[in-house]
Amino acid sequence: MTHDFSGWIGRSITRDDIATPRLIAEYRATMAPFIFEPSDPSHCAPGLHWGLAPATPGYDGCAPDGSEARGTFLPPIPLPRRMWAGGSIETLQPIRAGQAVQRVSTITDIKSRDGKTGPLFLLSVRHDFIADSSLLVRERQDLVFRDAGSRLVLPAEQGALTKGDWTVQASPLLLFRFSAFTFNGHRIHYDAPYAEEEGYPGLVVHGPMQAAMMLNLASVKLGHVPRRFDYRCVAPLIAGPAFGVNFDEATSSVRVIRHDGVTTAEGQVHAPGT
Is pTM, for the whole model, over 0.90? Predict the structure, then answer.
């Protein structure tokens, strides 16, 4: 590939928001009962940051797939397909109800390579959530941009779903609510005909929703929100059948498991100092 987007590294944008009662209620209603309830009622559940200060482009600021158009903050990468690859979440302090929060987003890395389906761009964005001059949450988001690929085919029959600590019904309502909570316009999550255009057999469950499920389950099992949580998405999760979320106490790791037994996302809790 001849495109060089290295000049976009370091580009930053700041947005402001408030952890309002309505936003907190929307997150709880979307995730419950698969959510960690902090002992201090003023502390927000882990993962609320995904709904704070999102990009809010107008209709003319959206790409054909419904996501934020490239060329303003994100570089004008010409490949049409956008996927959430994974990330890392550091929770230094809890976000509190009613707190005014700034989200400072910075492009930290852009790489190109050739993948199985053709050329790829891998882009990392750091989001710092700051209140009263203190860093609360630092998140790294890893995005992949690729060309159109072949159609994904999943087994039609119900496989032997590994029994999860949580079993979640991947309903269209769940996906719609998470899209609304995060102001995510990506059409693969709510527009079934468009999702088929991208080669999926149905609506696609959000990467950050799977991360939120894993982070909340880890918090429930540990009794606290982990200081650092890394995760990656390894296979598509399609709406419809239930999926499992499992925590392994021996390794402090978490997995999301599709109805056919395939792991779609995996996360790792890191001990302090690692």
Answer: yes
CATH number of the domain encompassing residue 99: 3.10.129.10
The pLDDT, as a whole number, for residue 115 is 72
CA distances from 40 to 83, 94, 95, 97, 193 (A): 35, 10, 11, 11, 44
Does a structural domain hold residue 21?
yes
* Per-residue pLDDT tens over the stretch 160-179: 555 679 999 999 999 999 99
Does any domain span residue 93? yes
In a domain, 1, yes or no: no
CB 269 within 8 A of CB 250: no
40-67 confidence digits (pLDDT tens): 999 999 999 999 999 999 999 999 999 9
**Burial (CB count <10 Å: 0-12, 13-18, 19+), residue 198:** buried
